[in-house]
Amino acid sequence: MIFLPVTLSAAGAAALLNFWLGARIIRIRLSNKILHGEGAQGELTTRMRAHLNFTEYAPLTLILIALIELATGSSIYLWGLAAAFLLGRALHAIGMVGPIWARQAGMLLTFVPMLLLASYAIYLGAQPQPAPTAVFKIGPKG
Predict the structure, then answer these.
(1) Tell me, what's the pLDDT at 137?
(2) Distance between CA 6 and CA 74 in Å, rounded?
(3) What is the Cα–Cα distance from 42 to 64, expressed in whole angstroms?
(4) Cα 102 from Cα 19, distance rounded (Å)
(5) Number of H helices, E strands in the chain
C-alpha cells in the first residue's frame, strides 16, 4: 500500500477549508434570504468568488504535492509548501472581505508554493529514468 502523509493531510485540510468557505456563503444567503443567484449583496458575490478562487487553485496544487510525494517521498520541504499554500488560501479568503494585506499575503503564499512545486515537478519529470523491465513474456505457446 502506498501512503502519502503530506498529500493526505493537505487534502484533509483543504476539504475543511472548502467547507468553511461554503459555510460563509450559506450564512450570508440565510441571513439575507437569498436562495438563488447573488442577490443585491456585494458581500455574497465576494464570498462566492473567494470560494471559487480556492477551487481553482487547490486541485492542481494537491495533485502536484501527491506526484512529488510519490516520486520523492515525504520531506519537511513538502510539508512546508503544503502548509504555506493552505495558509495562503485561508488568508486570501479572509482578505476578500477583510484587510487587504491578508489577501495580498494569501496570494503570495499561494503563488510561491505553487510555482516551487511546479518547477520541482518539471525537474523531477525531466530526470532520466531506467528503462522499464519486461512485464509480459512473449514467446511461442507451448
Answers:
(1) 67
(2) 6
(3) 34
(4) 20
(5) 4, 0
pLDDT digits (tens, 9 = 90+) for 40-65: 767 788 888 999 999 999 999 999 99
Query: Which DSSP category does 37 fall into?
Result: S
| pTM over cut 0.85 | no
Q: Left, alpha or beta for 73 (phi > 0: left; psi -120 to 50: alpha)? A: left
Q: Which grid coordinates belong to 94? A: 479572509
Cβ–Cβ < 8 Å for 95, 101: yes
Interval 1-37: pLDDT, tens = 788 999 999 999 999 999 999 999 889 888 877 777 6
Whether the CB-CB separation of 69 and 4 falls below 8 Å is answered with yes
The full length of the chain comes to 142
CA distance 39 to 135: 59
The number of C-alpha atoms within 13 Å of 58 and in the hemisphere containing its C-beta is 24
